[in-house]
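User: I need a structural model of Vacuolar protein sorting-associated protein 35 from Sesamum indicum for a docking pre-check later this week. Nothing fancy, just the predicted structure tokens so I can convert them on my end. Input:
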Amino acid sequence: MIADGVEDEEKWLSAGIAGLQQNAFYMHRALDSNNLKDALKYSAQMLSELRTSRLSPHKYYELYMRAFDELRKLELFFKEETSRGCSIVELYELVQHAGNILPRLYLLCTVGSVYIKSKEAPAKDVLKDLVEMCRGIQHPLRGLFLRSYLSQVSRDKLPDIGSEYEGDADTVMDAVEFVLQNFTEMNKLWVRMQHQGPTREKEKREKERSELRDLVGKNLHVLSQIEGVDLEMYKEIVLPRVLEQVVNCKDELAQYYLMDCIIQVFPDEYHLQTLETLLNACPQLQPSVDVKTVLARLMERLSNYAASGAEVLPEFFQVEAFAKLNNAIGKVIEAQENMPIAGVVTLYASLLTFTLQVHPDRLDYIDQILGACVKKLSGKEKLDDRQATKQIVALLSAPLEKYKDIDTALKLLNYPRVMEYLNARTNKEMANVIIQNIMKNKTCISTAEKVDALFELIKGLIRDLDEDLHDELDEEDFKEEQNSVARLIQMLHSDDPEEMSKIIHTVRKHILTGGRKRLPFTVPPLIFSSLKLVRRLEGQDESVSGNEASTTPKKIFQIVTQIIESLSSIPVPELALGLYLQCAEAANDCDLEPVAYEFFTQAYILYEEEITDSKAQVICIHLIIGTLQRMHVFGVENRDALTHKATGYSAKLLKKPDQCRAVYACSHLFWLDEHDRIRDGERVLLCLKRALRIANAVQQMATATRGSGGSVVLFIEILNKYLYFYEKGVSQITVESIQDLIELIRSEMNGDNASSDPAADAFLASTLRYIQFQKDKGGAVGERYELIKV
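Assistant: Understood. Predicted structure tokens for Vacuolar protein sorting-associated protein 35:
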């Protein structure tokens, strides 16, 4: 049925175009021969094609545009006729004898255009006559297009100020009256279109009506372009008349479109000065009209106007714009009880943006808006509506973007209350926005009170909310979120040690609620922040008392120990061991030997009891050796105990190559240049010899299992350690031992069971070049190297 209707409509359109073109052809022939009588006859027959009621608005428009093009040519002919002596007044009378009213009125408008240009009669009289005559067409579609044609031909002939058609003192009023009258009649016709045809096709008709909206809206655009329409006239005449028509038409589509038109076409300063009038119309609109979007666009325009320069802001204060907008929003929400929550939040988000632009110093206004949101959200479940949550994120983000300072947001009492209504996913999203804002603006949060408020705001990232149980988060996203929290913790700082200590306590309180998955991300930055504080407190007198007692290094180390112990429930022993070693180094810098020893003890316990993976053991033993090497605080007894343990762990690693490397690394524990009391050449040599024995064992195992010698890389690494200590002046490392090792390496590489190893060849060549380099350099070191024969 629909397909048949479309086909029929195409046939009717084709027939209409054919008839129009045929008559246009005869009209052109008459025009060419200057035959006015035939020109009028065929033009009237051509325009009769527009009398059809069979076409949809879209198809009718196609037919109308073809007629419009022909009427332009006819208008030029009429103009030429008047220049040849034909009376325009007689011509104006003559076209009124056309048989049908629709062609008659199109011809009348066309001649009327030439009549006004001739200036033989005041423009206002001709325009008044035309707009009254057009009442003769009451068919909605035909009338709408006729009046659109009238608007089109008259728009450059209005008796405006400065126009060539300007008349007496009230000339602007005549122009305004003409446009307003045409607008009113067009809007009535447009609204009546919804009642043409069966009810079942109402949706289709509304779509067709929507396509025609610009025909009506152009009148408002013409009004806005009239030079003589100043603020006074707009306020007293234009706006009240337009709004009267908008409210009285009681049509959802027309009301929404025309309100939007008013906002878009007239100047911002006019809107500001007539704000109350415009806002009072909103609650009078039909309940189904999307008032929130209308108001949001109005506030957006006013916000942009306020942003254009500080000189316009006094106008906003003078008209009390905030109070009026706030009151209007309240009335609209009250009038539309079923307005979705997304709409409510959109309105408040727009009002907030406006307020931030006009009253950035009035935090009470901003908190008032957030409070109104809370009131509307109260009694409801957590928001799951995507549009509503998107608007709330926009609402909460606006103050951050404006002030670029989380401190300001923390002063808003209703800010966290709004966040309470977000679901877990959106809460995290908003928390991320807050953290990114802090990072971007490098905001320093310097009091424990603010830190506590901030962590309450971002609790969606700090701990599991109930919904999380059913919301599996992508692993990569989770890591990114927690890394953001870690970066935030690093930015918390106070120059006052006492306050910084409170901040550490506050952060600890929050992150310990984070659960097993979060602690490995959030504990390390807190530990490092604590160690920064410890280093600031280095050398502080331990006898201090009173409030400052909690900020001594020992007290901080106690907190740090408790924080690291919280990782035991996860467990992540490698991470905990690394943190203990970092703390030991900090205690070393503070000359706190018992504390440093305790941290090492805890690290050793973790190594022995928790770390069973062979690769992890290798990494951890090298961490232990590297940290222990840098320690200077230990006495002989404690250092011996710790180094003995470290060498023992090294020798017990699973893989022989790992054993070898760990053992020769231990040699550095017995010789430190910067400490005269840690220079034990015998034990250095002992470590290196033990490493050699292990390397030999690796070689023998390779020969026994593969039938060929293994890589000599371990021997070359040990050779480099020999050269290092020889250069440092360790007397136990002799030239003979170095030369013997070089010979051993060469014999292994050239032996019958040797396998090709380019990496080992390059490593040895590089080592021998280094020896030659030191010889060539000369000096005391060069003299020592001269003794080595390679």
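Before docking, keep this in mind: The radius of gyration is 45 Å.
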